[in-house]
Amino acid sequence: MGKPNNITNNFVWSLAEKTGRYGITLFTTIILARILQPKEFGVIAIVTVFITIANVFVQNGFGFAVIQRKNATNKDFTFILFFNFIVSLIICLFIFIAAPFIQDYYGMDGLSKIIRVMSLSIIIAAIGNIQQAYVSRNLEFKKLFISTFSAVMVSGGVGILMAWLGYGVWALVVQYMVYNLICTITLAFSSGLKLEGGVTFAELKSTIALGGQFLLTSLIMTMGGELRTLVIGKLYGPTDLAYVNKGQRITNAPMSVVQSSITAVMYPVLSQHQDRLEKIRDIVRRFVQVSSFLIFPTLFALAAVANSLVPFLLTEKWNGCIQYVMLYCFIWLLNPIQMAHLQAIKAMGKGNTLVVLEIVKTVVSILILALTVICFDSILIIVVGLLIAEILCTLITCSIGRKLFAYSYRMQVEDIMVPLLMSTIMFWVVKLVEYLSLGVLPVLILQIIVGVLVYWGFSRLFKPSGYTLAIPMIKGYWDKLKNRF
Length: 485
What we know:
Blueprint: H1 7-35, H2 38-59, H3 62-68, H4 74-106, H5 111-137, H6 141-164, H7 169-190, H8 205-236, H9 238-272, H10 277-314, H11 322-331, H12 335-347, H13 351-375, H14 379-405, H15 409-433, H16 440-462, H17 465-484
Helix pairs in contact: 1-6, 1-9, 1-17, 2-4, 2-5, 2-8, 2-9, 3-5, 3-8, 4-5, 5-7, 6-7, 8-9, 8-13, 9-10, 9-11, 9-12, 10-11, 10-12, 10-15, 10-16, 10-17, 11-14, 12-14, 13-14, 15-16
């Protein structure tokens, strides 16, 4: 592996990449939501479920395994790249055959054609994933920044232009395809991965076996997470599904900016300390402390301003998603804790533990989904069931961290309690501003100002661990960014 960069420096680029991507994606989504109808987003949401599940086979298994492999060479990455490519061809062929049956099941004309076109992205992703794994292992996140920023800019522009010209749902299809294509092409030229043959299947048998465990884990987790989308799409139709999906995506964006930036750096670093349990626990604790300090107030604030934010950004035709925006804010709260544990377990090479854990969590999630569907005729109750499932799954995941790297329940509660209490108080203060008769935009601006002042004031007063870690880092990152740009 090349000379490792400073972790702080790489987090700057990782954070810049995620912030730029999600920022432009959010802007693009707002424009597209104003032009297109909710039903068209619902159709894409259904198709995306099948593509997401298929992508697990090429994005969430062998790339992670080769990062975890000590002293991985270009030959190793080359072998996995071609292995991924062959797998993607098989999956793409399967989806081509299954597409008409999916269309008949949902009773939507034209769905088969959309599925077949979007399935081609699986082949593109199979190649790009290994390039991303190579860049991540070498901690060269500047290259990821350039790749994803270019892709989201171009694909967003293409999507908006096609929507404006009246192409409807195909604007979203082409936007999705262009993004994946540009990401892969730019990384092909910039990653530095040189294709070298000479590695046999037997030499990478252990890596492929570990990748298979990661793949199975991700497949179980993804299928469990996407099952609700399939159920809602079938029982209630694409328009209602679009409201739920939009609520999920709006709330997921700000959380993912911070969380995925830290995680992108966290996994390669954890892999370097996979045999030092105390070091792993310390890294996980810092991740939980910083992400909770940053993510908790963001999600609580987003829930508090949802009534003003949604009609202002997306127009009133999307008001049906307001209740789901609020619910998903609380569903995502515990995600940083689960993510930290999963990254540590994965870095330690505990593939079997991951598989068992995800099976248990998926069973819990499916049981709660079944109960909510059978006992209640309500999409809202189905989403509430997801909140209950997330709480139970977090408790299960925390028990694994306690056993594997001595991250006790007391430590875990201590790491999140103060940000949680500060965010709760801030939520109710911001919510009270909503009752002022000032108009949507003035109320929204005042809510944001009040939320920032309240949370910042509490942070200065109580100085939680996340604050003492995050503020110096943010200042350092800001100085580095100013010097670079």
